Amino acid sequence: MQLTVLGTAAQMPTARRNHNAYFLKWEKSGFLIDPGEGVQRQMIYAGIRPSAVTHILISHFHGDHCFGLPGLLQKLAAAKPKIKIPLLYPADGEKIFRHLLGAAALQSEEFLQAVPINQEPFRLQAGSLQIEAQFLNHRVPALGYRINKAAVWHICPKKIAAAGLTGSLIGKLKLTGKLDYNGKSFHLADYAVLGKPIAFAAILDTRPCDAAERLLQNAHLALLECTYLPEEQALAENYKHLTVSEARALCENNHVNNSVLTHFSQRYDTLESFEKILKDSLCNFILADDLDRISIQEKTGELFLQKAERK
Ligand SMILES: [Zn+2]
Ligand SMILES: [Zn+2]
Q1: What whole-number distance in Å separates Cα of residue 291 and Cα of residue 268?
Q2: CA 120 to chain centre
Q3: Burial (CB count within 10 angstroms: exposed 0-12, middle 13-18, buried 19+), residue 45
Q4: Does residue 289 have an active-site annotation?
Q5: CA-CA distance, 69 to 78, in Å (whole number)?
Q6: CB within 5 A of ion ligand 2: which residues?
Q7: Number of the ligand closest to the Cα of 140
């Protein structure tokens, strides 16, 4: 899986940070999470083609997470999508959603499938992946998302070669778990190892809550808002955001392997104080900059961070 960070600013964009927007490429799907203002140009800088977007996930309808939707839809329309693109959002934001769709002369019905979410648990299949959504604790209804990939079998080449199985026979064995061939019975577990399920979680704009904990549980990669330093605890509680200490605790308590922190308040010129608080954690934290690209090697769990250069 590969996450491209398109914007990292809370509330208002700055000279260095665009409004929120994230793109997760995983298997054959491309999830655009929270199209904040400026998402079209950020996609160009990051080299993301509109045709790569197969799903749009909106966490909530505060401006820093959705002002870029009309522009994004125009961009997608120009690419003439051959499939309907599901757009997931909190159902309570229906009125704002319709305003955004009507913000310009744009025919989005042809390629957009609106998926308002008002009950839990919510699940939607996306090819071999499954999207899960739950309501977080923010000032307006806000969804956290988790994308799951079920455990898959990894064939041991030596064992399977010794058994004399090739091509479509291996495919059949993987599919059914058992194969009768040449008077013998073959069981998949004797020739393959079952990997672990893999998950990505996106927790944007929330206080710590049970839903965030559930969505983060054992995630290989998580994206979390991290608006304030602990000194601003009162603001975090008032505006319903996370401090960096709370984001750290959420990830550690739920055994998250890698966490990308984002959505920084514009009051901070540097993130040095955030870095200090994240030191010596078992979870691998990345304080995101716009256009960072984070890849996870699924078999080994290894993480690669690529700092993108602005073209
Ligand atoms: Zn926000
Ligand atoms: Zn918000």
Answers
A1: 19
A2: 19
A3: middle
A4: no
A5: 14
A6: 62, 205
A7: 2
Which of the following is catalytic: 64, 205, 290, 292? 64
Residue type (1 letter), 39: V
CA–CA gap between residue 70 and residue 37 (Å, rounded): 9
Cα of 167 vs its chain's centroid, Å: 34
Q: Set out the domains of the chain in order of their start, with CATH numbers.
A: 2-152+198-307 (3.60.15.10), 155-190 (no CATH)
pTM: 0.92
Cα 117 to middle of ligand 1, angstroms: 19
> What's the start-to-end Cα distance of the chain, in Å?
24
Q: Can you say how many angstroms the Cα of residue 40 is from the centroid of all Cα atoms in its chain? A: 18
Which H or E run contains 249? helix 244-253
* Tens digit of each residue's pLDDT (9 = 90 or more) over 24-82: 999 999 999 999 999 999 999 999 999 999 999 999 999 999 999 999 999 999 999 98
**How large is the C-alpha radius of gyration of the chain?**
21
Residues 296 and 220: beta-carbon distance below 8 Å: yes
Element (H, E) at 17: none
